[in-house]
């Protein structure tokens, strides 16, 4: 079982993805936590631009980070399967190429928030994706997440 | 004026947001990321799905309901 995700590992993602030129955004509750949302989660979710070049760069960066990707798995990431769940590395990571509720990477990228060098989805996008996914765990978190969005917008106005 | 006991959840949440905003990011990380075993979900080192809908369907079919990955309806 992978260890708990730590700040140093987030820095490693940021640095490895920057070295390889990967276009990505933190999304989901891990993204909200980067923005300041106080809650707990188990892993990090990354929204990646879906293109062969970006997928290939991501696979190279993930191998640098210590993920044991087979050539077939790297090929799937390069081709951009919509959802890839990685538990074969130093921490758990979900790669999302087509999150629910978000029209495309470019639109989300234009709205991104930079938090100490980490590219993060805007809270509105994090909320939209959870509204669209509409799982039990999303419904539980949404009222507090919306309150955080309002707080965050007022603070960053 | 509010007296103790009058706070709504939003008031309590706002106080939590304020407290979190005072903590450095590194500290927030330490409090935020936990790891517990999730049956089925954690039992394979790698999974991929052609579509997000296929992933949602797999979660609904295969994961214990209490994990919360199933549809809310």
Describe, in plain words, how this protein is organized in 3D.
The complex is a heterodimer of chains A (157) and B (73). With 157 residues, chain A is an alpha+beta fold. Chain A has a single domain (7-155), classed as Beta Polymerase, domain 2 (2-Layer Sandwich). Chain A has 7 helices and 6 strands. Chain A has helices at residues 7-20, 28-35, 52-65, 71-79, 105-110, 123-133, 136-155; strands at 24-27, 44-48, 83-86, 93-96, 113-115, 118-120. In chain A, the strands form 2 sheets. Chain A has a 4-stranded mixed beta sheet with strand order 1-2-4-3. A two-stranded antiparallel ribbon of chain A has the order 5-6. In chain A, helix 2 packs antiparallel against helix 6, helix 3 packs across helix 4 (71-79) and helix 6 packs antiparallel against helix 7 (136-155). In chain A, 46% of the residues are buried. Chain B is mainly alpha-helical and 73 residues long. Chain B has one domain (9-67). Helices cover 44% and strands 5% of the residues of chain B. Chain B is built from 3 helices and 1 strand. Chain B has helices at residues 9-21, 25-32, 52-62; one strand at residues 46-49. The termini of chain B are far apart. The model of chain B has no long low-confidence stretch (mean pLDDT 91). The chains are: A alpha+beta (157), B mainly alpha (73).
